[in-house]
Amino acid sequence: MILYGIPTCDTCKRALKTLQAAGKDVTFRDIRATPLTPAEIEAITHEFGDLAVNRQSTTYRAFNDFLKASDPEAQIMAQPTVMKRPVIQDADRWYLGWDSATEAALTR
Questions:
Q1: Residue 6, Cα to own-chain centre: how many angstroms?
Q2: Which of 19, 24, 71, 88 has its CA 20 to 30 A from that of 100?
Q3: What is the pLDDT of residues 2-52, one digit of tens each?
Q4: Are strands 27-30 and 87-90 parallel, antiparallel or unpaired?
Q5: pTM of the predicted model, to two decimals?
Q6: Euclidean distance between CA atoms 32 and 4, whole angstroms
Q7: Rg of the chain on CA atoms, in Å
Q8: Which runs of E-coded beta strand occur in the chain?
Q9: How distant is the alpha carbon of residue 64 from its chain centre?
Q10: CB of 26 within 8 A of CB of 65?
């Protein structure tokens, strides 16, 4: 299982802690320290489309009009931290964000 996020994100920390407490083997992928590859960005945007971008973030709000009008792949490529977090890959399944449904699906 891979959890994509940043170490300062409280939601990422909470998800990682919960998954590890449930005995899951989780690799934390700091997207700042180890940037996403084009293939990873494509996989994430293919799976989640526009939902992969956190449009409420200050990062997104700082984008110029051209970048705001771009596709999610270009937005994440330009600034990876605009990605909604965490993104969790569990084998061939993908999860976006951390809520009770995601927690239940991954900790059972």
A1: 9
A2: 71
A3: 999 999 999 999 999 999 999 999 999 999 999 999 999 999 999 999 999
A4: unpaired
A5: 0.92
A6: 10
A7: 14
A8: 2-5, 27-30, 87-90, 93-96
A9: 22
A10: no
User: If 0-12 CB within 10 Å is exposed, 13-18 middle and 19+ buried, where does residue 108 land?
Assistant: exposed
Bond from prior residue into 86 cis (ω within 30 degrees of 0): yes
Phi-psi map region of 80: left, alpha, beta (phi>0 left; psi -120 to 50 alpha): alpha
Q: Are 24 and 89 in contact, with CB atoms under 8 Å apart?
A: no
- Name the strands in the sheet holding 27-30, side by side, starting at the edge strand that comes first in the sequence: 27-30, 2-5, 87-90, 93-96
Mean per-residue pLDDT of the chain: 96
The C-alpha atoms of residue 17 and residue 10 are separated, in whole angstroms, by 10
User: What domains can you pick out in the chain, each with its CATH number?
Assistant: 2-107 (3.40.30.10)
